[in-house]
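Record format v2
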Amino acid sequence: MFVKLLFALLLVPTAAVAAGDKPNDAQIAHIAYTAGNLDIAAAKQALAKTQDGKVKEFAEEMVRDHQAVNDKALALVKKLTVTPEDNPTSQALTKTADAKRAELDKLSGSEFDRAYVENEVAFHRTVNGALRKTLIPNAQNPELKALLRQGLTLFTAHQRHAEMLAKSLGK
Amino acid sequence: MARVVTAAIGAVLAAALASTPAHAVRYIIPIRNMAYGPAPALLRVGDTLLWRNEDMFRHTVTARSGEFDLDLMPGKEKEVQLGKSGKLNIYCRYHPTMTLSLYVKPVTRRTP
């Protein structure tokens, strides 16, 4: 459900962003920053709940890496004097992720670990698809485009790590 | 007494020289875009590897054998000397999908 909804939100930007227009740089920056922040929030929830060493290491990685990208993104928008622009995609992403966090909050132990990691696989897969198909192609500023590409390389590694972890946690 | 000390130092130096490779080389291996740079084709015991983290993320250069474990903040570099021959499997503790295999050949002795 989560994956399906996010795909609908992110891969059909005409429906979600700026009433039929392609997302502009200010919106793209906002979407990328929001996605990073949401993953940090998910990781902080995991750090508070998990007892599993591998899940803890993964969550620490998410906080550290996404914070690094978001710090770069903030520095870049400041340099370019671009103000990130809130948009329906960012809002929908936030709403969906908030609902998922509330759902995960009711779980504990290995049940929580599996649900968190499975959601991380889905989240990164979706964000990577959006970066590849929508955000990177539509970014106009070369520095923003380059940062998004670096983000994609990182998030692809995160997705593979999450998949590895999901496999080791089993069903 | 002084002669004994000199002789002892001489012995230590001789031992050190005997185990020094004929042409120890220092290689620079960059880490960028979530990957280790290419592994040098020919590595020998005694060679030095300088790992340079050019990513915006923290990485480690960790040998699965436990031989070394370098923690590198973004923009930092650290060096390690290869102590033994054989295959070295390297990975990043923070990003376990980042891996590199190194093949280290035994040292070539100085020819008299």
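Residues 2-18 of chain B form the longest helix (17 residues).
The beta strands of chain B are 26-32, 35-36, 43-44, 48-53, 59-63, 69-72, 77-81, 86-91, 99-105.
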